[in-house]
Amino acid sequence: MASFLALRSRPALRAAWGIRSLSSTQIRRSAEDEHIPKPPPPIDDSTSALDYKTHVRTRPPPLPAMDLPRSRTAEEAVTNILYNTPPPSLQPFKKHVLNCLVQNEPGVLSRVSGILAGRGFNIDSLVVCRTEIRDLSRMSIVLRGQDGVVEQARRQLEDLVPVWAVLDYTNTHCIERELLLAKVSILGPEYLEQQFTGGPTHEPRRHGEGTVSAESIKQELENKLAQNFERGAHPEDAPAPPPLTASEVNHMKSNNLQAISTLAQQFGAKIVDVSEHSVIVEMCGKTKRVNAFLTLLNPFGLLESARTGLMVMPRTPLRYPDDADRAAEAGGVVDASLLPPG
């Protein structure tokens, strides 16, 4: 009987020993896994912005009042119903700056621009970049429209799932900056058309350079004859001016480069690249200042220009300690003994 019980207990002991050994192996493996470096946590999806807006949702302020035209007659009302034309608003079109905080994921830019395009807005400038937070991006959008229509578009943008918040900085004191890169010719505006045909190097076509076919020469002569006939002049062409010497070209380049450098210093810009026939100027400032700088560069011969768009950041108000003292003095009790008699 004892031998029979011993035989029956052997499988149970083996199973218990296997469980113990398996559990110790798992414990050893879990302890080793703790020391293995793990990848960073995955980027949160778009629902994070949705959860944030759900918990901090407050009642939005009412829409701005729309200025409506005068009351219409019955004939005008029937005509409006037939043609389905809404009454025009009398609010002026002005510049608006929207700042969007969105989730850093693919497809957000297309959804934001699609909503604005669907409402008929033309985006003047759009700047998108990552912020100091990995999962957050900032959009600075500049457009023109009426206050009520822009506010409706802002709320529609804020209802998107990957959008955290949309702020309107139109009436806020902000720092506005825009970056400009402009390539300007140092040969002068006389050689601007020839530099455009020079390719990436913007090298002008030299006198007598290259082989010209007889067909192109014939075409040029026919064009000159047609121009002279229209002007009523003689078909004989005036003699071409002689080509410039090397010293004259260097003197002309030096004068134009000095003038461009002086103009750049007045606007706080700087020359970042100098080549044989052109220079690249970099400038950072407000939009109006950038437009003025481009206007003054046009007479020199503007070859290319690139602008980043408007970037904004609200200013932080300062509180001076004297303000509280002045407010206390203004609201304090006046001593009657200090007043003049009478």
Automatic annotation (TrEMBL):
Pathway: Amino-acid biosynthesis; L-valine biosynthesis; L-valine from pyruvate: step 1/4; Amino-acid biosynthesis; L-isoleucine biosynthesis; L-isoleucine from 2-oxobutanoate: step 1/4. This is ACT domain-containing protein. Residues 97-171 form the ACT domain. Belongs to the acetolactate synthase small subunit family. Residues 28-48 are annotated as: Disordered. The keyword Nucleus does not apply. GO terms for cellular component: acetolactate synthase complex; mitochondrial nucleoid. Keywords: Amino-acid biosynthesis, Branched-chain amino acid biosynthesis. InterPro entries: Acetalactate_synth_ssu, Acetolactate_synth/TF_NikR_C, Acetolactate_synth_ssu_C, ACT-like_dom_sf, ACT_dom, AHAS_ACT, AHAS_small-like_ACT, ALS_regulatory_subunit. GO terms for biological process: isoleucine biosynthetic process; L-valine biosynthetic process. One of its GO terms (molecular function) is acetolactate synthase regulator activity. The keyword Isomerase does not apply.
